Amino acid sequence: MAEISTPPQKISWGSYVALLFALIVFSGVFAGAPGAWSLLDFNTLTGSFGSLLGPNGKATFFRGQGGTSARDALMYAMSLWPAIIVALGIVSIVDGYGGLRAAEKLITPLFKPLMNIPGICGLAFITSLQTTDGAAAMTRELYDEGHITDYERTLFCQLQYSANGTITNYFGSGSAFFASMGEAGVPIFVPLVVMFFCKFMGVNLLRLVIYFDQKRQQKKNNA
User: Fold this and answer.
1) pLDDT recorded at residue 95
2) Where are the beta strands (DSSP E) in 57-153?
3) DSSP H or E run through 22
């Protein structure tokens, strides 16, 4: 029996609207926004666990304190599931409206020549700036569904690995250094530029490593 091929999904104005919605949610633009606007932020949608009282009478995270080894790792893994579930749910909705194809069309002219990564990874990249867990789940889904090859997945993982969770970690943990940076005359945006430059350099260095490794393997096979 001949295999029936499904026609490629058309990109409509609704696809771009869905893509814009996802970009807003994952970018953190509405983080800390008043009222219902905060629901357009991914971390707000993910929420937080309640607190428990520790031995010292102080509130602690639901994992507790002093955990070790596999049991503590299990509790940590459980804390990742809400972010992954919410991220994959949003991606499924956006993909249903053609948002991933819209991202591919818009971002490929930028990603492909600079890093040899297809534009369909653009939404996952935006997500990686705010949450590492959601981006990792989205990357796996892109690969499992055949949107990206193993080579492209490798490059894209390298792009995320350098300064992953860039925006969240920089303005969260890095904010402690903002006062010192101001005294030294260093603008706040400079470290961000350095981090994005390192992302770009890391991907292209990995491309060179893979290229020369393939050449070496080819020479070895021809010998």
Assistant:
1) 85
2) 59-60
3) helix 13-27
